[in-house]
Design brief:
elongated; about 40% helix; 13 helices; Helicase, Ruva Protein, domain 3
């Protein structure tokens, strides 16, 4: 990499001053300026020419250049037209990078069609390739981006991302803790999660007010296969964690009003859940089992899975 293009504090401040622009706090622009950490993120991605990399939050391209050196193709998404222009000008020689100037999200529940099209095109160009998300994610979109890729049909094999420390903790949270949430269950039901490094604010410019983390996420196919219908499961988690401290029975009776209350009681009993239980107290595998029972109850034409989802899956 050219020394002139290293994403250091000095380089960024001089560049922004020259262009008369400022980092946009509304877009969560906090640039990772510790080159050792940028290299750590790229190294932990374990890239090969068989990989398509999705990077969300190009910035000035400080990480992109490391990804392009190892991956088959990189799809780099940047919403800010100023950052997009800087990255494409500084790294115009990277022939295996799709520079895409778009929002990552269409809305909070959908990835942007241009992002989806760009990833699909890259995967189609490389039959048998896998997708990896490697990014210094803007804090305000990290949760939906990770969640939607986990729930997608893309052949993703690894994520190495920087996120807020509190989000990293939520991703790994255990039942009964204040950080345990629908996100915790959604990810842990399908993935293994490891916090690789805690990052203090001074490794970013501008400095955020909070700590961050580099997180590794890898798929756990056996666990995912126990989910009868991922979309139903996702909606189930969203509904019950809107009222996480209420008794689960009451939330279920309200959410699934088409199911008679006595039948709700029977399903809870089948899943080994007491009438006094709350969503925040139950482990991931119990939520999967209960959601499966509810799915088959509300979709009677589908074959019932019983309680197979309670069996251990690695």
């Amino acid at each position: 990499m050219s020394e002139d293009h290293r994403q250091t504090r000095t380089h960024l401040t001089e560049l922004f001053h020259k262009l008369r622009i400022n980092p946009r706090g509304d877009l969560g622009q906090n640039f990772l300026i510790d080159i050792n950490l940028v290299e750590l993120v790229a190294r932990e991605a374990q890239l090969s020419k068989d990989d398509v990399v999705l990077e969300v939050g190009t910035g000035t391209g400080g990480l992109t250049i490391f990804l392009a050196a190892e991956a088959g193709e990189v799809v780099s998404i940047e919403y800010d037209p100023n950052m997009h222009a800087i990255a494409t000008k500084q790294h115009a020689g990277l022939s295996n990078v799709q520079w895409v100037n778009t929002d990552a999200l269409k809305n909070k529940n959908q990835l942007h069609p241009l992002l989806v099209e760009s990833v699909n095109t890259a995967l189609a160009r490389r039959p048998g390739s896998t997708l990896k998300l490697v990014a210094n994610l803007p804090y305000n979109i990290a949760t939906p981006v990770i969640s939607m890729i986990v729930g997608s049909e893309w052949p993703w094999s690894r994520m190495v991302v920087t996120v807020q420390w509190e989000m990293a903790v939520r991703m790994q949270a255990t039942p009964g803790s204040s950080d345990y949430s629908g996100l915790s269950i959604w990810l842990q039901s399908q993935c293994d999660i490891e916090i690789l490094r805690k990052l203090p604010p001074d490794v970013f410019w501008p400095r955020p007010k909070i700590d961050s983390a580099v997180v590794l996420v890898t798929p756990a196919p056996a666990r995912r296969d126990r989910i009868a219908d991922p979309e139903f499961f996702h909606n189930y988690l969203r509904a019950i964690f809107m009222h996480r401290r209420k008794l689960l029975r009451g939330v279920l009776c309200s959410t699934y009003s088409q199911v008679a209350k006595p039948r709700i009681d029977e399903l809870l009993q089948q899943a080994g859940i007491t009438p006094q239980a709350r969503a925040e107290e139950l482990p991931t595998e119990i939520h999967v089992a209960l959601a499966n029972l509810l799915y088959h109850e509300t979709n009677p034409s589908t074959p019932a899975a019983g309680l197979d989802s309670l069996k251990t899956a690695n």
